[in-house]
């Protein structure tokens, strides 16, 4: 089964009517640890691919570093929207890189990363705290990269950083 399917399925099984409830994903710390482990494995896996090409068309990647003081001052909805922007850029970068990589190992790893990042993107779009749907017109800080490994590094940093912190913040309210 596609790796992103587990994430989406586990989330959809724990939805409340009308609004998605991230309760299990957020309250069961083992799940986010599993996704961090998978991100690390994907990063390691692409590092083992032989002769990965430099991308002829650079990919735009989000800057996913976190200033904890600034992060703590944001609302959960602002955090969610920021992560959605980062994921949208990552999904686009993975898709764009897939079109440029013909080598089987690199293409397989990019496909896996695309599935995982896209599942998180779809997942976070399913719940919100403020009125109005998410619109993909955001402009996070970004950087152009020509090395495929940077896409995986960015994804791992996003999952290990903002996403983990976001789930931790949600857990304070949902896991009482």
From TrEMBL:
In which domain of life is the source organism classified? Answer: Eukaryota
Gene3D superfamilies given in the database record:
1.20.1250.10
Stated name of the protein: Erythropoietin
Lineage of the source organism? Eukaryota, Metazoa, Chordata, Craniata, Vertebrata
State the function annotated in the UniProt record: Hormone involved in the regulation of erythrocyte proliferation and differentiation and the maintenance of a physiological level of circulating erythrocyte mass. Binds to EPOR leading to EPOR dimerization and JAK2 activation thereby activating specific downstream effectors, including STAT1 and STAT3.
- Among its keywords, does the record have Disulfide bond? yes
GO BP annotations, alphabetical order: cell population proliferation; erythrocyte maturation; positive regulation of ERK1 and ERK2 cascade; positive regulation of hematopoietic stem cell proliferation; thrombopoietin-mediated signaling pathway
Q: Where in the cell is it found?
A: Secreted
Q: Name one GO molecular function term.
A: cytokine activity
Q: Which InterPro entries match?
A: 4_helix_cytokine-like_core, EPO/TPO_CS, EPO_TPO, Erythroptn, Thrombopoietin
